[in-house]
Amino acid sequence: MHRRDLLRTLALTTAGLTILPAFAKQNYMRDIVGPGFTRGDFGDDFLWGVATAAYQIEGAWNVDGKGPSIWDTFSHTKGKIKTKETGDVACDFYHTYKSDIDLIKEMNMDVFRFSISWSRVMPNGTGAINPKGAEFYHNVIDYCLSIGIQPWITLYHWDLPQALQDKGAGLTVLRLMLFANTANGRLKNMAARLKTGWCLTSPLPTLPLGHLLGMHAPGKKSVGKFLRAAHHTALSQAEGGRIIRKNVKDANVGTTFSCSDITPLKNKPKHVNAAARVDALLNRFFIEPSLGMGYPTDVLKGFKGIKKHFEPGDEEKLKFDFDFIGIQNYTRELVKYSIFPLLCGHGKLLPIKSR
Question: pTM for the whole thing?
Fold first, then answer.
């Protein structure tokens, strides 16, 4: 498959469509959506778009002054990635952003959401701005606007600067507060052009995978570090929203959560209760603190240790009235009771083939 065709396929898949061979596409889509189904059926105020993450598409991992992120380090570490693949080149968006954004326009999309690589604009995590890195995002925004695409910014998509991780700042509330402050100071002159900002993308997957199970960057395996990172991420999410709203006039501020439909294997109390615990972790854990409801530790009793990481005033600092939230729905989860408590407290997610 040619790169252009691959990108078109990936972009459409992100938008919620499945690409089939040309001979099957027409009938398949007709069967799914029905005859006469059009864009207009969603209303004039419905926006179609695609979303990406800096590490997944940009490449140019050490070009023009960019510093390493935790994902650069993780993917370069022997034994961490089974296929030994990295994001060193990826889609090479850093060098081909115009032709890639042209694909978005070609697909009649309204919005392009992309994240800012923290270590590209601030190689050391704090301090001096990298002019080349800042210029790149200026150029992306300018080109989007020039062809009628709305640029939406995500401040943080899992690629913490390795310099901050090395200093032990990877688990502290400073990680997003620092970035939000500097990012908005840097983007103030873009405020008239950037009205929609996202604080985080789906904090839940990266935290247990990165700080508890060691499967994602930074590759840590610790319940205590996971709970600490989870709490500071929730604080950062709210603080980032406050900083954006303060620094960007009329900003439309949101964040995203990955959520799943949770179904118990059978309608028996032990399976239903297990499903409730999984629901509390996957769907409620980061949304409810922002609403002033706190963490759902009444259901996730094994998470009560998160209180050890609270400082005075944290209950209020967790709250933020977002203008919108994004829901990323990838899969349903079929849950059964397990004798092993593990992360979800005697709840086990069944493999895909069983769903």
Answer: 0.84
